[in-house]
Structures are given as C-alpha cells and as structure tokens.
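Annex B, item 7. Sequence and structure tokens for protein A, then protein B.
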Amino acid sequence: MTKKRLITISVLFLIGIMIFLRLYRFESFVMFLSDQGRDALIVRKIATFENLPLIGAPSSVGQVYLGPFYYYLITPFLPLFNWNPVGLAFGVALIAIVGTLLAYQVIKTKFGAEIGITFLILSVFSFTLIHFSRFSWNPNPLPYFGFFSLFFLYRWLKEPRVLDGLLFGIMFGLTIQLHYLAVLLFVPVIIFFVSEMIHNKNRLLYLFHLPIPVTAFVAAISPLVLFDIRHDFLNYRQLIKLFTEGGLSTEASYMDRLGETIQGFIASAVQIELPLTAATALFLLFIVAAILGTKKIKSRLFSIQIVAVLTYIIGFAYLGSPRHAHYYGPIFLSFFFVLGTLPFLIKRKDLAMMAASALVFIFIYFNISKYYFFTSEPNHQVEHSKKVATFLYEQIGNKPFNIATWPVDFGEDTYLYFLETMGARAADRSQLEITEQMFVICAQEPCLVIDSPSWNISMFGDAKIAEEWDIEGLKIYKLVHRKPL
C-alpha cells in the first residue's frame, strides 16, 4: 500500500470517527436549556421574517452584548429540521466537522501529512471540541473562526491581496461577534503587523492595503457599532471596564490569576487536572519547545499560532471571571496545531513518530473517559420541553395567558418555543400585559407561587391557585385573580 493511499484511508477513518463522536445519540443528549430556548425563539422569528435583530445575546463576561451573527449562522437549520430545535445543534455540529476538515487541509498543505494527521487526531478526540459540537450556543463555533482569522492574517501578511484582506477582516469581525474574548486576538494581529512594518521593504504596500481588512472588519461588526451609537457606547464602556478593572472583580493578584488561567486551559484543552505548579510548568515547557521549534519550522503561520496562544493566556489572566472551557475557544485549534507539531521537531524520523504516537495515546486516554454519551443516561431535554409545552397548550385553551417559572433562573423559554410553534404566544411581561390566567412552572420545592418574591409571578396581581398538576418531574400551577380585573 502506497503512503498516499494509507494517508487517505487514515483520514477517511478519522472523519468517520469524528462524525460518530459528534452525532452518536445526538438528539437524546442535545442540551436545550434556557439559553438554547431563548436562541430558538429568536431564530424562529428570523426564519419567519417576523424580526431581524441587530444585536445578539448578552455575554456571560461583563454583560457585554454580542453581535447577531450566530443567530443568522444557524437560522437555516431550524426550518430544515421542520422547526425542531435539534436542527440548531446539528448546524453547530456541521460547522465543527467542516471547520476541522478545512483546518486539517490547511495544516497538511503547509506542514505535511504527519503534522496534519496528528492535528486531526487531537481535534477529533478532543472532549471539549466534541462537547461544543453537540449543542447550540454562540461560543461553540469559536475554535474554527478563531483559527481561520489567524490563517487569513497570515495570508494577508504574506502577500497583501484584496481577497485575503477581506477574508481576514470579515472572519475576525465575525469571531468577535461570537464572543468578546476574541478581542484578545488583536495582540498577535498588532504584533505581526508591526513586525511587517519594521522588517518588510514594501511596508508602503501594506499601508496602502490596510483599509481593506479594516473596512471589512468594521463591516463585520457593524451591528455592534450601530448598537453602541444608539446606546451611548454601552458595549465599548463595559468592555474597557472589563479589562481595565480586572474583569469580574477578584481579590487575587495577577500572578495568581495567570496560574489559574493556565491551569484551567490545560484542564479544558487536554482534560488533565493538574496542580497549579505542575500545570504552569507544563505550559511553560510547551511554549519554550514551540519557540525553539520556530528555528526548524520557519513559518510565520506557525509563529502566529504560538503567539496567539501565549498572548491570549496572558490577556485572559487580567480578567477575574471563572475559567470556563468556552472562554478559551479562540485558541483551541491553534494549541492543537502547535502541540501536534512538537513531536516532529525531533530530527530522527522514527523517534518523532514514536513521540507523536505517545502524545496521541496519552491525549485520547485522558479525553475518552469524558465521553458522557457512552455511559450516561440521555437527558431528552428537547422531548421534555415539548411534552410540557403540549400539556400546557391543552390547559391554556386558546386564551391569553401569562407564564413564569420558579425559581426565576429556571427559565421558561424552552417551553415558550414549543408553545409558539403551536400558535400560543404568552403575554409580554416586559410590557406589563396581564391576562386572566397565569401558569407557573415550578422545578424546586417549596414552590413560592402565592405572594411570591419573584416579580415575574407577583406582577400578575392578587391571585389564587385554580389548578395544579405534576408532569415530567415539574409542578405546574394555574393562577387566576382573586377578584376580577
């Protein structure tokens, strides 16, 4: 068997595994909680041209509003799946599969099949990337948009062509729309652009072409620009505050936060829980090895990925927010690319292949144990929401209604989505619309539905319980007014 044929068979085999790991028992495990219900409601209105929003969801970091790009990105998948919200998650899975394959193709073309396949294996078996691909959420496509933002930066710096400048600006702008922490990628962008201005004799050519990526970037984030203009630059002020004041307040020193950031990154990217000192030492070893490797792999694309990982970690450490896995999204593929390259820095080919094999084995060993869809019972969250909504629809009886949940953060959007697909739309609580009946979905005892501390419930007014039911592990109460309105 020729080497080329063996590579083709190996890649096809890995593609099959990638698809299997991302779609196995897919609908049974699809996450459909409050955020997904909110997004499904918005996407449904986009798909039916009822509303075309110019702003996205609030970010969990500093309550900075995201752009609407994610909503439009996944909109086609809702009608394609006959308005089943599982379609939105499938859209994310498809983006992940295609994004991984495109990144592999780039790496294989630039650095050879061995490095490309090692990168592909790490990406295919990464628990974090698998998990991100199995439900709908705006940060989940970040690894692919972040990687290709840096790739098109490399292409544009290599030769400032109009197309590459447009693609870089658009891709970077869309990446920031997915999550504001992607602004940390500005650091490698600035570093390599300034380096080009210092060392390249054709610096005037780059300055002449600079308006192209800048204009494309501004166009890509234009919904956010318009939002800020209309709202006294709310996002800009919140974003500046986020970084200048250390983010979500913390008493820890910067060095403590840096250590926690590295520790969280190792746990998220490699699935190895290490003590702080060990995680920091391992990360430093990785960075030193990668920097030394630039002497052998003389590629600006490789250097950009290293700088992106390092500066992102350093920048993220300024924030006091929790170190959730999705916060590292923009650099996951960059990390896997650099990590997968390190074994091939060894001069002897047989030793390099042994090192790559050991790396892959250790990585798969620590990741495969996290594959919950093999061992856990399915949550059937979409089916649950549909059953509850169907029951509610029967009780509503084609009459106007209010709806609320207890506790408040439990959220009713997943049920509202299916109610709206059945033609039942709740009264607008934000407009103080009050009807003659309210349904309260309780997920936690005691169910405080009368004289409730929740404004969402108490705004209904002086009420009594007319009926109550138990369904799908929930208590549902129908409230009516004690006195007619």
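Protein B:
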Amino acid sequence: MAAPDFVLKLREKIGNDPLWLPGVRGVVLDQDNRVLLCKRSDNGHWTPITGMLEPGEHPAPGLIREIYEETAVVAETERILAVGVIGPVTYPNGDVCDFLDIAFKCRYVSGEARVNDDESSAVEWFPADELPEMSPGHLAVIRLALDPDQPTVFQME
C-alpha cells in the first residue's frame, strides 16, 4: 500500500520523525447485520474498512470514499462509535505515525462487495457471530456498532 502523496511530501521534509495523521474506520453492516471486512494485503489481517483522510477532507465523506475505493460498496455513515489514538506505529522503513482514529457505524446502501484496489486481498461479509480473528480494537468497535444503545466511546484503543 503506497502512502498518499501528501504524506510522501511531508516525509521528504521530516524523514522518519513521528507524524500525526487523521484516520477513519467503518463498521459497515448490511440488512442482516453482517459485517463487511477486508483482508489487508500488507499483513493478511482481517479488519473493518480503514483509511487515511486527505488534507481538508471531512471524516464522514472520507470514510465513504475509502469504503467504496476498497470494496466497491456504497455506504452511509450513521453515527460515530469511537474516537481514539492508535500508535505510535513504526513501519518497516522506519516511518513513525500516530493516528487520530474516528470509528463510524455505517449502513450498506448498494454494490457488490469485492476487492476494488490493491490494499486488500479479500473482501467479505461475515455474520456477527462468525467473525475471523482480528485485533481487540477492531472487535470492540464492531461490538459498539452492533449495540444501538452504546454511547460514543472516547480513548478507544
């Protein structure tokens, strides 16, 4: 997965030093409460749809863009599930990033889920009780999305 151009330009100036970046994560649910997940091509892990916002991009439309780019699914954001910080993350090339993560519950609108770019090796719908292995943080936001009475969580890991 290539870094966005704006990150590459910043890296030319600051090298591997820590970089604060805005990120979004979407738990997309269909009418049967199945969860849309992608299997990342860089590490093979299953995750909800995630992405980095472009400079000046609003989080909700940015996430909808990411969902479509990665899965060919059209979705709508319904509510913010959690806001937190992920990191620091150190990449193999030495770059260090911290991400402001805004997680949304999203509703499926249309489209046939499929791999739609090079960031994923698989895209699938999973019943909520048959999720593949994934990080505790991803599982936590999925649980938040499935429970309509949960308030927005801050300081999510």
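Comment on protein B: The radius of gyration is 15 Å.
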